[in-house]
UniProtKB/TrEMBL annotation:
<dbReference type="InterPro" id="IPR043134">
    <property type="entry name" value="GTP-CH-I_N"/>
</dbReference>
<feature type="compositionally biased region" description="Basic and acidic residues">
    <location>
        <begin position="79"/>
        <end position="94"/>
    </location>
</feature>
<dbReference type="InterPro" id="IPR043133">
    <property type="entry name" value="GTP-CH-I_C/QueF"/>
</dbReference>
<dbReference type="GO" id="GO:0046654">
    <property type="term" value="P:tetrahydrofolate biosynthetic process"/>
</dbReference>
<keyword id="KW-0021">Allosteric enzyme</keyword>
<dbReference type="GO" id="GO:0046656">
    <property type="term" value="P:folic acid biosynthetic process"/>
</dbReference>
<protein>
    <recommendedName>
        <fullName>GTP cyclohydrolase 1</fullName>
        <ecNumber>3.5.4.16</ecNumber>
    </recommendedName>
</protein>
<keyword id="KW-0342">GTP-binding</keyword>
<feature type="domain" description="GTP cyclohydrolase I">
    <location>
        <begin position="98"/>
        <end position="273"/>
    </location>
</feature>
<keyword id="KW-0547">Nucleotide-binding</keyword>
<dbReference type="GO" id="GO:0006729">
    <property type="term" value="P:tetrahydrobiopterin biosynthetic process"/>
</dbReference>
<comment type="function">
    <text>GTP cyclohydrolase 1 is the first enzyme in the biosynthetic pathway leading to folic acid.</text>
</comment>
<dbReference type="GO" id="GO:0008270">
    <property type="term" value="F:zinc ion binding"/>
</dbReference>
<dbReference type="Pfam" id="PF01227">
    <property type="entry name" value="GTP_cyclohydroI"/>
</dbReference>
<dbReference type="GO" id="GO:0005737">
    <property type="term" value="C:cytoplasm"/>
</dbReference>
<feature type="compositionally biased region" description="Polar residues">
    <location>
        <begin position="7"/>
        <end position="19"/>
    </location>
</feature>
<comment type="pathway">
    <text>Cofactor biosynthesis; 7,8-dihydroneopterin triphosphate biosynthesis; 7,8-dihydroneopterin triphosphate from GTP: step 1/1.</text>
</comment>
């Protein structure tokens, strides 16, 4: 299935010019990209690249291929229903969520008829649907026409991509920055798409470790590069705002695949360039 998508991606129009890779700025994120000349020539491309799992221990999430046959990528159980529903069904969904939120407010001892809370259930319903809109993203739309043939085999890094996600254990936000690096193998991805990829997985119920891994695995599947490195540093509201008040603490996770995993020098170069060393 993943092969089928790759095939379709490789058949996309490759004639558009590569975006300038000096600096990328867009709504919701700011990223700088850089390449380095000091990178040691890789010994070999990642082999058996059908699944990056061959270099990773198995986990329930990564056992499945990054991209389904229909372009969804690790969708939630109700993702297809959300994508396919008409306007009426959408409103019904919003209404059911609002009703549930109203119950929560009442159970908190609040007066749901006071002015400030009158439309809060509806607002919250819409906000939650927005925070989880990544389930509706189709990776083909995300990547659309942005895989380019390019004879570039040096490290490409986009760092400081802002992400806002929801911790699935507490349904409260965690947010921070993602740094993505890869070493191409004849194919590069439009730089802004790396941020789109991060956004797609961040706008779901997540744990930071899985988010890190999903971005890395999807990129590996799309480009079959020689290596992928993803580092996320994030602040979790569930951690800093309750219990032991560890304000100011941040959580760093990383996922290194292919050459980044094999070569300590490459890995350290990446970590140095994203300021994590
Ligand atoms: Zn949490």
């Amino acid at each position: 299935m993943a092969e089928k998508l790759t095939k379709q991606i490789s058949q996309l129009d490759l004639s558009s010019p590569l975006p300038t890779n000096a600096h990328v700025k867009g709504a919701g994120y700011s990223a700088s990209a850089q390449t380095t000349l000091k990178h040691t020539k890789p010994r070999k491309p990642q082999t058996g690249a059908d699944s990056p799992l061959q270099t990773r221990p198995a986990s329930p999430y990564t056992l499945r291929a990054p991209v389904d046959s229909d372009g969804l990528s690790w969708p939630s159980i109700g993702a297809r229903e959300r994508i396919e529903e008409d306007e009426e069904a959408k409103q019904g969904r919003e209404k059911r969520i609002s009703d549930a939120v109203k119950v929560i407010l009442e159970e908190l001892g609040e007066d749901t008829n006071r002015e400030g809370l009158l439309e809060t259930p509806e607002r919250y319903a819409r906000a939650m649907l927005y925070f989880t809109k990544g389930y509706e993203d189709n990776i083909r739309d995300v990547i659309k026409r942005a895989v380019f043939e390019e004879d570039h085999d040096e490290m490409v890094i986009v760092r400081d991509i802002e992400i806002y996600s929801l911790c699935e254990h507490h349904l409260v936000p965690f947010f921070g920055k993602v740094h993505i690096g890869y070493i191409p193998n004849k194919k590069v991805l439009g730089l802004s798409k790396l941020a789109r990829l991060a956004e797609m997985y961040a706008r779901r119920l997540q744990v930071q470790e899985r988010l890190t891994k999903q971005i890395a695995m999807a990129l590996t599947d799309i480009l079959k590069p020689q290596g992928v490195a993803v580092v996320i540093e994030a602040t979790h509201m569930c951690m800093v705002s309750r219990g032991v008040q560890k304000s100011g603490s941040s959580t760093v996770t990383s996922c290194m695949l292919g050459y980044f995993r094999e070569s300590q020098k490459t890995r350290e170069e990446f970590l140095g360039l994203v300021g994590k060393r």
